[in-house]
Design a protein that fits this description.
It contains ten helices and eight strands. It is of the alpha/beta class. The longest helix is centred in the middle third of the chain and has 17 residues, at 106-122. It is globular and about 45 Å long.
């Protein structure tokens, strides 16, 4: 079990040391073994910190195979990022147990969790309670459609800040701000700065991050983990640039 306690510890340690992490998001519906082989090689070469595996729908049955493929070909930890509570694979290392705190749909705050709790508990995965905040990225996303919940307005930094604070005080161990897959615009650095300045837990940021500079600036603004999926689906070689940029953010040494 010692191994399974490790992911959250590594996230908090990285945050304490101001070390930024890069997570590559893999949607099992969009990959096969051939893709995965290429992706894993690039990720290992670039020093990617985590694989996030999941999607809004997951209509193929490739979830287990996808996770197992990563686990047998490299040592990068695999964290499930489920679009619904049924997306559980016992082969992963950890699970983001998402509560959609930016919306007001009770099903995604707690309802689906009640139904899935026995399966999730039984999976043996390290469970990381995550306050999930969807920020308006300028395009309707699968997340906002499926969740039947309005995203947070992209220019309302105070609302985002209060939402993240509430999530942390309710016991969420991570805050994940996402402008959704294929977002027209990424979350503003001013919003990231505002949110990161008022919480102690690690902050994950994803959605609409299409180039290395954006990833770097998000880290400088206070993001602890940058998640990129869509941009890499279009051009896998971006992994190298993104990883280099994220890992080049100066580490602050605490004496």
């Amino acid at each position: 079990m010692a191994m399974q306690q490790g992911i959250y510890h590594s996230l908090t340690e990285h945050k304490r040391q101001h070390r930024k992490s890069f997570a590559v998001l893999v949607d099992p519906d969009k990959v096969n073994d051939h893709h995965m082989g290429e992706l894993v090689n690039l990720a290992v070469e670039a020093g990617v910190d985590y694989f996030f595996v999941g999607g809004s729908l997951v209509i193929s049955n490739y979830l287990d195979e996808c996770v197992q493929f990563i686990k047998k070909t490299c040592a990068i930890p695999v964290i499930l990022f489920p679009g619904s509570p049924s997306q559980v694979s016992k082969y992963a290392d950890a699970l983001l147990y998402l509560s959609l705190i930016s919306g007001r749909n009770p099903e995604l705050l707690i309802g689906q969790h009640v139904v899935s709790a026995p399966i999730v508990k039984q999976s043996g995965l390290e469970i990381m309670p995550t306050g999930y905040m969807v920020i308006d990225g300028g395009a309707p996303t699968t997340v906002s459609y499926i969740s039947n919940a309005s995203p947070l307005p992209s220019d309302k930094n105070e609302i985002a800040m209060c939402t993240a604070m509430a999530g942390e005080m309710l016991g969420m161990k991570l805050i994940y701000m996402d402008s959704g897959s294929g977002a027209k615009r990424a979350i503003s650095t001013s919003m990231i700065e505002k949110v990161s300045s008022c919480i102690e837990v690690p902050l994950i940021v994803g959605g609409g991050i299409t180039d290395a500079e954006k990833a770097y600036l998000n880290c400088k603004s206070g993001a602890d983990v940058i998640v990129v999926g869509n941009a890499i689906e279009k051009d896998a070689t971006l992994i190298r640039e993104m990883a280099a940029a994220i890992h080049s953010v100066p580490v602050k040494i605490r004496l």
